[in-house]
Design brief:
single chain; mainly alpha; Cytochrome Bc1 Complex, Chain C
């Protein structure tokens, strides 16, 4: 069958007007998106799809029960053909996905692309950020070695300090007062079912809002030129994605995933460290009293979510005071201080 006859055959059975598909692809984008720094929006999506694909493969062998979980991970890592590679891709993609989401959010914050009418786009983006953290936390606990078990214990203990809802939420997550078989089963359900479903739903809303409002122009950029979403921007996103995948594959080959000692509830490790993306919160809660740390963390989260409206309020208080430069400088300063703090810790 020729290509023309195939298109005609498909056109009869799926009668979608060609223009309705072509119009979104021919969207005109601001010229600043030609810079590689602004081509990070599609990278988290690519890494999420990679995690879904590798996660499905891992579920064929993983057993979400305390007595078998550790042995199943060891079997995947050391006995299953290419199991170490699939597990390494899954873990590495989760790390890079957090980096990609964070860099994308920093870029949007610094350029103030969250301003009206794009406030809800920012809210959806912050929701994706927190869902990414949730996916990382629940996935790390499934390994069920010493570090993951005790990191889960410490992480869930912090929930108990939340006023009013802390204890009920702790029991709901753990399925009891301590980390037990119910905890592993519930974290497994959250990791492969609840959180990915919420992520996809929020992601669809985020993409729809981006397409409805278009991409925000840079503040103070006099350029009015545009270029096409397809094929120009799509090819740039694809090039960035291929570089990320190449780096990920090389990293997994050079540093294959390992496995610590089996989880033992009766033996507390000398050093309990969460995943690196939880280090700032972990250290902050160690520096200040617990209740102060919980309240300030909650305030920080609320400030992230409602920042577009906070920014608008500040601009009304001080019009013409170069608020954009102040916000951008504060964002870069916060990022640099955070990186230096982590490097020296």
């Amino acid at each position: 069958m020729s290509a023309g006859r195939l298109r005609a055959w498909m056109g009869e059975r799926v009668p979608i007007p060609v223009e309705s598909l072509r119009k979104p692809l021919r969207e005109e984008l601001p010229i600043h998106l030609k810079q590689w720094l602004f081509c990070l929006g599609g990278t988290p999506l690519l890494l999420f799809f990679l995690q879904v694909a590798t996660g499905i493969l891992l579920t064929f062998y993983y057993v979400p029960y305390p007595a078998q979980a550790y042995d199943s991970v060891r079997h995947i890592t050391f006995s299953t053909r290419f199991g170490w590679f699939i597990r390494g891709l899954h873990h590495g993609a989760s790390q890079l996905m957090f980096v990609a989401v964070l860099l994308h959010m920093i870029r949007v914050f610094v350029t103030r692309a969250y301003r009206a009418p794009r406030e809800l786009t920012w809210v959806m983006g912050t929701a994706l950020f927190f869902l990414t953290l949730g996916l990382g936390f629940t996935g790390y606990s499934l390994v069920y070695d010493q570090l993951s078990y005790w990191a889960t214990t410490v992480g869930t203990n912090l929930i108990a300090a939340v006023p009013l809802i802390g204890q009920p939420l702790l029991w709901m997550l753990r399925g009891g007062p301590d980390v037990n078989s119910n905890t592993l089963a519930r974290f497994y359900d959250f990791h492969i079912g609840v959180l990915p479903t919420l992520f996809v739903a929020v992601l669809v809303l985020h993409i729809v809002l981006v397409r409805l409002h278009g991409v925000a122009r840079l503040e103070g950029d006099p350029r009015t030129q545009t270029y096409w979403f397809y094929p120009d921007h799509v090819l740039r996103e694809a090039a960035v994605g291929l570089v990320v995948l190449l780096v990920l594959v090389v990293y997994v080959i050079l540093s294959p995933p390992g496995l610590g000692p089996r989880a033992d509830p009766n033996v507390t490790p000398a050093s309990i460290r969460p995943e690196w993306y939880f280090f700032p919160s972990y250290r902050w809660l160690k520096l200040v009293p617990m209740q102060a740390g919980i309240w300030t963390s909650a305030l920080f989260v609320l400030s992230m979510i409602f920042w577009p409206w906070i920014d608008s309020f500040l601009e009304h208080l001080a019009p013409g005071k170069r608020l954009g430069l102040i916000v951008g400088s504060a964002g870069w300063l916060f990022t640099i201080v955070l990186l230096v703090w982590e490097a020296l810790s």
